[in-house]
Amino acid sequence: MGKRKVDVAIDEIGRVIYGKREVVELLLIGMIARGHVLLESVPGSGKTKLAKSFAKVIDGTFSRIQFTPDVLPSDVTGIQFFNPKTQEFELRKGPVMTNVLLADEINRATPKTQSSLLEVMEEHQTTIDGETFSIQSPFIVIATQNPVESNHGTFPLPEAQLDRFLFKVDMGYPSEEEERDIMRAYLTEEPLDALQSTLTPEDLVSMQEEVKEVHIADVVNDYLLRLVRVSREHTDIELGISTRGALALMRATQARAYLRGRSYVSPEDVKSLVPYVFEHRLILSMQASIQKTPTEVVNDLLNSVEVPVESGART
Question: How many CB atoms lie within 10 A of CB 173?
Fold first, then answer.
């Protein structure tokens, strides 16, 4: 039942975002695995519309923060303010109190404001003037950034912040046929307005619990860990994958297997998700960063570790 509803949700978003089924699936994996997703692509490629479509399909609450250098941490988390009429302090909750938080152009926020998201992304809670508030599940931060912006008014995310994102996904350009379909679909209407909710927040909370039961055989877990270890020993890599990154990959593979109706993780689940989990976490050596891209280095990692024979047996 859950799998069918998930497929319907992916198809529904496909009515608005053409040719991005894999990206939509990664968002669902991110939410089921209790992770967050960083979308990176050129302006106008549909990042914001994708986040809005995702929130509408899961029937969740949605908040958007348009980051600029003058946005303050309190604009994100909320604030206690003094009401002169009542002569009392009142709580004004920030946009983080939601199911889907779109952090638009996150790299335009100052480091202090960026760091205000650290607690909510890691702990699913936020602290306002010393008082802690839990964020209701399900919760996901979908952040966007444009890789081609000038350095004026932008602040690259530090490694500690990048490590909080389960995936970094490049939206890319649509194919010629997909772009033709987009032009036809948007000629007379706005497909987002007609989008139907096919999942509920309760469905997703149930999935978050069920995915914990997805089995990872020892041979598959060893393959995952070997990739992590090799990232720390590779000559082109100055800083490899952290333990948090290893756990993120494990959770993501369980969610991917779950979406495909399997009760076990396959080596293909691991191999297919490594680029999205590893690339934004690796720090290349100075020499390697001149000669290679993170994508090329991750491909080297994958090619250097033998893929085990797939087996769903519990070992």
Answer: 12
